[in-house]
Design brief:
single chain; 104 residues
């Protein structure tokens, strides 16, 4: 949650370079942080109460989160060329608009 909030706050100054789409990954980080917090709560409650069902729910949700993390990592690695192109195009567009808008 903290990393997502930091990314959102720190990159607001660079929105002109990225066509305003920087907040998407930050929001995703915040949402996944909140989901991880809830899952960790299930794990703690299951361990304290020694509840088999809650502990198994925790294990299943952690497995799903691990699979999603692996998928996101693999997807990011596969699409790294597109990200570089997206960043380069955004920078070129912002250079063409230099001096025309406030804050650029």
């Amino acid at each position: 949650i903290g990393l997502g909030a930091y990314v959102w706050i720190a990159l607001k100054d660079y929105l002109d370079f990225f066509s305003g789409s920087v907040s998407g990954p930050a929001i995703v980080l915040i949402v996944f942080g909140a989901i991880t917090f809830i899952v960790a709560f299930f794990g703690c409650c299951g361990a304290i109460k020694e509840n088999h069902c809650m502990t198994m729910t925790f294990a299943a949700l952690i497995t799903i989160i691990l699979i999603c993390d692996l998928g996101a990592g693999i997807g990011g690695y596969v699409l790294r060329g597109k990200v570089e192109t997206w960043l380069t195009d955004g920078m070129k567009d912002s250079m063409n608009n230099y001096g025309e808008k406030d804050g650029v």
